[in-house]
């Protein structure tokens, strides 16, 4: 027997069992004194109970419910604890993707007749999921302008307010403090898509009111939903999402639906993200710095009628970004709007000519990405703060900023000629 293998009276096998029986039994245990930098990977469907007391005393609402693989393992709970810590939350649930986390919020909280309010710049798959709930189950979908909060008119049926910071694609930064206060005054739950901020640009559970001092009552969203696929993963190769909360009752409501839907995540994927989280803040800072270096160049090009990023003084919601993101962080995304005379074929030519920016969805990885959009097709409300024309979104990776600038320049030069 290896000196590194520990057997106790409770798991020791009779000496007379056949070899195949011995090989099939879970008798191997790690020594208790072993500590490693990274949490070991636990792969489990079945989890063995110590005895009948452990079996009978388990409860689905336990903070660490080690009763079945879908509920959690030390590997998955470790990542959940890490994300909760980053976001300043007390509780965190994991889901197989960011969209899965969004759908969990919608399915757990919305019933027939309930109103859900979404910004016009919402992550489009969330909009599509809510349209499906409206058509199938009678959920009432309402759309508001992120730059005109008077467009929100809550009723007695209003149940949930989705907030996008910064707005998907066009990056508007809303008056987050006013949105939270407006919802709380009417008893409406708030769900923030915090993928852009990643828990690093600002804390979703300690929001600064730009109109008041820090001595005032803390403002917090009810839920922070995060696509861990992006910055926490950081490699462009893992799908996962999270829902963070500070309220126990709300957490249990979400946890119950999480269990009923059989939502589970891979221990291997959790271990990979846990490892990446240790240098996530450094990567986020570099994405941001690269973006800031690109902005003056983009503003200098005559092909663009508008450059969109919260750090730009003329950008929609710049004052709220400046107040809430007090370290001046702004992620690694910048969008441009081409002059209105350019046609879609020219925009496609530009995207195809880029060498370091690759056509692809998502962001937060080491490789820079590009995508183009027809704003008229994806916005439902008037957008007077945006110029007419095709929009191109750059997701800035970890390449040297000078090389990225040269790549955009050569594509624009080829495009213009």
TrEMBL record:
Family designation: Belongs to the trans-sulfuration enzymes family.
Q: Which cofactor does it need?
A: pyridoxal 5'-phosphate
The taxonomic lineage of its organism, from the top, reads: Bacteria, Pseudomonadati, Pseudomonadota, Gammaproteobacteria, Moraxellales
- Top-level taxonomic group: Bacteria
Give yes or no: UniProt keyword Lyase: yes
Keyword set, alphabetical order: Lyase, Pyridoxal phosphate
Report the catalytic activity.
Answer: L,L-cystathionine + H2O = L-homocysteine + pyruvate + NH4(+)
Q: Extract one GO molecular function annotation from the record.
A: pyridoxal phosphate binding
Q: Name one GO biological process term.
A: transsulfuration
- Modification type N6-(pyridoxal phosphate)lysine: residues: 230
| UniProt-recorded name of the protein | Cystathionine beta-lyase
Provide an example Pfam family for this protein: Cys_Met_Meta_PP
């Amino acid at each position: 027997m290896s000196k590194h293998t520990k057997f106790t009276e409770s798991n020791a096998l009779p000496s007379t069992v056949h070899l195949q029986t011995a090989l099939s039994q879970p008798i191997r245990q790690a020594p208790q004194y072993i500590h490693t930098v990274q949490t070991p990977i636990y792969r489990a469907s079945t989890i063995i109970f110590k005895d009948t007391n452990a079996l009978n005393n388990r409860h689905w609402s336990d903070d660490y419910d080690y009763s079945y693989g879908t509920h959690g393992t030390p590997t998955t709970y470790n990542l959940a604890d890490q994300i909760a810590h980053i976001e300043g939350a007390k509780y965190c649930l994991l889901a197989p993707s960011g969209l899965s986390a969004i759908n969990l919020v919608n399915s757990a909280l919305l019933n027939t007749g309930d109103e859900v309010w979404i910004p016009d710049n919402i992550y489009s798959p969330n909009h599509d999921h809510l349209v499906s709930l409206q058509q199938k189950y009678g959920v009432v979908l309402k759309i508001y302008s992120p730059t005109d909060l008077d467009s929100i008119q809550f009723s007695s049926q209003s149940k949930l307010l989705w907030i996008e910071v910064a707005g998907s694609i066009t990056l508007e930064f809303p008056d987050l403090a006013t949105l939270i206060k407006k919802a709380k005054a009417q008893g409406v739950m708030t769900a923030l898509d915090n993928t852009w901020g990643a828990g690093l640009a600002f804390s979703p559970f300690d929001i600064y009111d730009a109109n008041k001092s820090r001595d005032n009552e803390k403002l917090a969203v009810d839920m922070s939903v995060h696509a861990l696929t992006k910055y926490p993963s950081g490699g462009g190769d893992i799908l996962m999402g999270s829902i963070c909360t500070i309220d126990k009752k709300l957490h249990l409501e979400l946890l119950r639906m999480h269990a009923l839907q059989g939502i589970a995540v891979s221990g291997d994927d959790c271990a990979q993200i846990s490892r990446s989280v240790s240098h996530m803040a450094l990567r986020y800072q570099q994405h941001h710095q690269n973006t800031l270096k690109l902005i003056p160049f983009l503003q200098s090009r005559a092909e663009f009628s508008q450059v969109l990023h919260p750090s730009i003084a003329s950008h929609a919601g710049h004052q709220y970004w400046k107040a809430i993101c007090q370290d001046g962080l702004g992620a690694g995304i910048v969008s441009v709007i081409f002059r209105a005379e350019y046609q879609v074929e020219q925009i496609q030519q530009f995207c195809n000519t880029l060498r370091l920016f690759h056509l692809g969805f998502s962001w937060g990885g080491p490789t820079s990405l590009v995508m183009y959009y027809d704003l008229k097709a994806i916005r439902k409300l008037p957008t007077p703060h945006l110029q007419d024309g095709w929009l191109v979104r750059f997701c800035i990776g970890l390449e040297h900023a000078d090389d990225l600038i040269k790549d955009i320049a050569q594509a624009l030069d080829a495009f213009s000629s």
